[in-house]
Amino acid sequence: MAQEATLDERLLAIQASLKAPKGQYNSFGKYKYRSCEDILEAVKPLLREHDVTLTVTDEVVLIGNRYYVKATAEVAHMAATRSVSAYAREPQDKKGMDDSQITGTASSYARKYALNGLFLIDDTKDADATNTHGADQPEEPSISREQWEQLCNAFNDCAAMVGANDAEGRNALWAEAQAAVGVGFVPSMGAKGWAAARSWFLNKTA
Fold first, then answer.
1. What is the average per-residue pLDDT within 174-193?
2. For residue 196, what is the DSSP state?
3. Are 88 and 175 a contacting pair, CB within 8 Å?
4. Has this prediction a pTM greater than 0.70?
5. In this structure, what are the phi and psi dihedrals at residue 79, rounded to the nearest 5 degrees?
6. End-to-end CA distance of the chain, in Å?
7. Starting from the edge strand earliest in sequence, which strands make up the sheet with 66-77, in order?
8. What is the mean pLDDT of residues 109-138?
9. Out of 11-15, 131-135, 155-159, 176-180, least confident range
10. Higher pLDDT pick, 123 / 22
11. Separation in Å, CA 203 to CA 23, 149, 184
């Protein structure tokens, strides 16, 4: 009798099969991007196929003197679970939005990036992630291992300086930096994104 697939094996199969289209269009920047809802609609048939359940939850956490929405995406099969969390900071003010809309926007952003992490969706080439408003710009080469280590060292130094010593504080600092720089921090981020990210961490502790 064949052994039943583990949750990790099921998740790997879902990650390999998932194709989440960019179903949204930003008319101002003239680019397509995917939303949290696009990812959920694409993954539902695969969850059913592999007998895996998905839950996405939010909580508002206070880190320092700012509020963040912490979203957690969790898959489960039998008693096994795997989860990824992402943070989005609520802006102090956003013109034309009431408090519930501000929180809702942060929630959607955090949920999208929690799902991205769980299902290995790379949004660094997505204008919604890079905020360049230039969908046809040439792709930059990935940064080197040495540059990635320099960025991680700058982050670690910054975290120590601002007192982000636990996992929650470090995750929030990482998310704040990504939102400020406007690019996902991954090895394929390109030299310009790397320089901006490293500069942000250095300036944060200056």
1. 73
2. H
3. yes
4. no
5. -95, -5
6. 63
7. 53-63, 66-77, 80-89
8. 64
9. 131-135
10. 22
11. 37, 18, 19
Domain ranges of the chain: 1-137, 140-206
What string of DSSP letters covers 122-139? --TTSHHHH--S-TTSPP
**3-class DSSP state of 79:** coil
Q: How far is CA 127 from CA 111, 195, 200, in A?
A: 18, 19, 20
Strands (E), the chain: 24-26, 31-33, 53-63, 66-77, 80-89
* Burial class of residue 171, CB neighbours in 10 A (0-12, 13-18, 19+): middle
Structural contact between residues 142 and 194, judged by C-beta atoms closer than 8 angstroms? no
Residue 102 has what pLDDT? Answer: 56
Q: Which residue type occupies 144?
A: S
- Distances in whole angstroms, Cα of residue 7 to Cα of each of 68, 72, 140, 156: 30, 17, 36, 32
What's the pLDDT at 131? 44
Structure tokens that stand for 119 in this block: 């299902």
The span from the CA of 189 to the CA of 140, in Å, is 8
What are 191-203's pLDDT values in tens digits?
A: 888 888 888 888 8
CA neighbor of 120 nearest in space, from 7, 9, 5, 12:
12
Quick one: how many helices (H) and strands (E) in the chain?
Answer: 7, 5
CB neighbour list of residue 177: distance below 8 Å, 6 or more residues apart: 155, 185, 197, 200, 201, 204
